Amino acid sequence: MTTQQYDYIVIGSGIAGLYSALLAVEHGSVLILTKGGIADCNTQYAQGGIAAAVGPEDSPSYHLADTLVAGAGLCNEDAARILAEQGPHAISELVRLGVIFDTADGEVALGREAAHRMPRVLHAGGDATGARIELTLSSLAHHSRIHVEEYVTTTRLLVEDGRVVGVAGLVNGEGEEVEYLGAHTVLATGGAGRLYRYTTNPEVTTGDGVALAFDAGAAVMDMEFYQFHPTALRLPGAPPFLITEAMRGEGAVLRNVNGDTFMTEYHPHGDLAPRDVVSRSLLAEMRRTGAGHVVLDATHMPSDRLAARFPSIYKTCMTHGLDITREPIPVSPAAHYMMGGVLTNTDGETTLPGLYACGEVACTGLHGANRLASNSLLETVVFGQRVVRRSLEGGWTGPRPEGALALGAEPSAEAGAPSLEGLQALNWSNVGIIRSKEGLDEAAGVFAAWEAAPPRASAPNGGGRASRELANMVTLGRLMAESALVREESRGAHFRTDFPETSDEWLCHTVFTKPTLD
Ligand code: SIN
Asked: Is the Cβ–Cβ distance between 157 and 514 less than 8 Å?
């Protein structure tokens, strides 16, 4: 077994990983491990942009207030305040690194998205914000003290005397494990959209970081809160490509298949209601009209402006024969963002010394039960900076959750063998936008049975990349289903037909840990 040694090991190459790495390299050697190519990440697909209170009428206190309202009472207010207050500085950091945001009349152009009281979202290349950031940061990662290893599947966190001291991985996703030792390990592996049948996320989003951390003994929090984006492209033969909320912010309108607008019947903010409300309303409208989609209509907008402001959407739809300047876009909800994740404090420390988490894989509690649009790119920069600063201070002050739960579902006898398609269908129908005890019980039992089944149990080394990913998704599916079972209320993105009301008794977080074998 080969062993390599670094000051920092960063797992993941989206904005959270790259930005942390670019700061960390000022203080030591850095290894970035990524299971695909460097640009195979969710950041690449972020469209709407990055929220920050930089407008002349805006203030961090407004940004904070909007974040707390969207979070439906469950935001960690300290984390949300840090995000809002540090937002403008984070933007200047990205500009310092070379990101060029769009301007209008010489001022930074600000888009509007749901649940923001005013335009607050910076964008780049129109709707190519994530791709522009990824390109800028990844080109800077060609640095003499940053070693990027692409196509390495991380298989385990190495823990010695209760401290994470590095990771093991499979080069090219197969063969013998290689060990990488590091004084600080930063999880920046992103989200888990691939657990669902329909998702705006790319194939790499298999929840690896949460599964690695949980297996190593770290606490995970709020896994029942998973955000569905209301408007993903729904065309036969086309993947559910994201149709940014910023399009509604610019005036595009949701209509049912009969051509009628409907959102004001569901929420006073209409098309710009919080994302969880819009997703549920779309499902209701689809059920009412018997259609598999609604449409987003931008045909009344000037066509040259529409194509210039949303070039990626315009081009992608064109490749599927849809001219969005002339025809409404068929859309339906798709899995988009994991609010839960590896429990961290506001310095990115997890419950395992030596292990930090940053970005979508982490759960500071910042997003509460429903993330405010475009807070996610911002979070990576604000908290990435805090991770690196904390790593220089020494000592460990990570969270010590009380009342952590253990997974306990009885394995279902009828589960059969795990498969990606089966897992995605089960999660979509039973742990999706609308949930019930019956469906969650069924899902928890199937996931429990799959956890004891191949590939994890029988394949040598747990198998290669694909079987590792499937095993990780099973772990996450189980965590999501059991967390959702525990929370007997509806709040934000978590909606249960058997507990449709929000309850003050549930103004608390769900935390799970793996029981230790001693
Ligand atoms: C969007 O562009 O609609 C997505 C933005 C986000 O998820 O924050």
From this structure: no
